Amino acid sequence: MIRGIHHTAISTPNLERLVQFYRDLLGFEEVLSSEWERGAERADKITGLRDSAARLAMLKLGNACIELFEYSSPPPRPGDPARPACDHGITHLCLDVRDIEAEYERLKAAGMTFHCPPLNMGGVSATYGRDPDGNIVELLEVKDSSNPIALNIH
Asked: Which residue in 39, 61, 109, 129 is a FRET match for 117, CA 20 to 30 A apart?
């Protein structure tokens, strides 16, 4: 039985920078940090990699966890920080917020880039921004609890 989503994972070339963004700017709590050295057979089996080595951090906010990885082996290919939201793959991480306008202004003032200001879409307001690696982070405020997107995640 699948009970729900446990976490979203992001690979980054700079673990400290991404931990700082999600922890210090967005308010996630760092609940775990770890690493494995080359030759860790179980890690290679799970990831489908050979001779993998990485550092990781798990962060949590409300019911959402984000796992951040910085691989040192095998050498990762860089991502495209301007990858369009329509390209195949994981498209974004959505954060449930209150007072989306205030969060937008706070994050914009801290240097986070956004595609546009928050837009009202009938009972919900949303905008897409980018983390330091270019991953899309959506801010979503549900203003009408009868809206089907109001999942009562708290």
From this structure: 61
